[in-house]
Amino acid sequence: MKAVTIDHVRKRLFVGLLSAGLIGTGLLLAAIWYFAVNSSESMLNQVLLVALGTMLVGGILVAAFGVGGIILTILYARDISALKGPIRVAVSTFFPLVLAIGRFFHIDKDRIKHSYIEVNNFLVRSKTLKLSPGQILLLVPHCLQKSDCPYKITVDINNCRRCGGCVVNELLELRDKYGIHMGMATGGTLARKFVKDYRPRGIVAIACERDLTSGIQDANPIPVLGVTNERPFGPCLNTQIKVPLVEEAISFLIEGKEQMAS
Ligand code: SF4
Questions:
Q1: Which residues contact ligand 1 via a Cβ below 6 A?
Q2: Backbone dihedral angles phi then psi of residue 228, each to the nearest 5 degrees
Q3: Tens digits of per-residue pLDDT, 113-132?
Q4: Which class in CATH covers the domain with range 133-255?
């Protein structure tokens, strides 16, 4: 019950900031409209203001449907296909604004990104996905590998000797158990290459909040379930992951289980 409440709070942060961005843009639009109507400026200036205002109206309408779609999806725990486009546009267009508002209120960037990942995961889980294992890619970061491991597994993950010294061994066991693809990325370029090579229809990605956020947006429209790593030794060094969370995400993509209660 407690975890469910925390999940809700996490999602609320992103949705709240997104709504604040929408309201702020609406106020900006009202100001533009006011100046356009009351200005004694040249015709050209007025036309430019009206054009800008029209673009903002379009953006706001799409974003309003998007934010509404996210809230309805969270409330009803169902995919609302008609609002998929606006949700995607609202999230990707307003994301920088959400971060800027968060900065203004001194909200930790990682907390906002974590909230975004929670919202993204919820939206993915609201769909019914029954993918075959070959359509799933497990993307993992190289910092999960033990730092003093001598084997170069970023080139070929099968170079891992499965000594059990780090979690890579358990993730490879998951790969073999489910028959999915797995790639270890050192950054966005390699991650994009795996996506290009395997052409997945669903991705389970492990990374820090920053990389997961950009990865989810890069992979769009491919659904990505993000699992944030743990960093007991600081960023990018011997990071860890709760393997059951990864397995649950993989089995969701395969079995298309019903949305978890929110
Ligand atoms: S399981 Fe062992 S061999 Fe494989 S990456 Fe980890 S430390 Fe290296």
A1: 145-146, 149, 151, 153, 160-166, 168-169
A2: -80, 140
A3: 999 999 899 889 888 888 99
A4: alpha beta
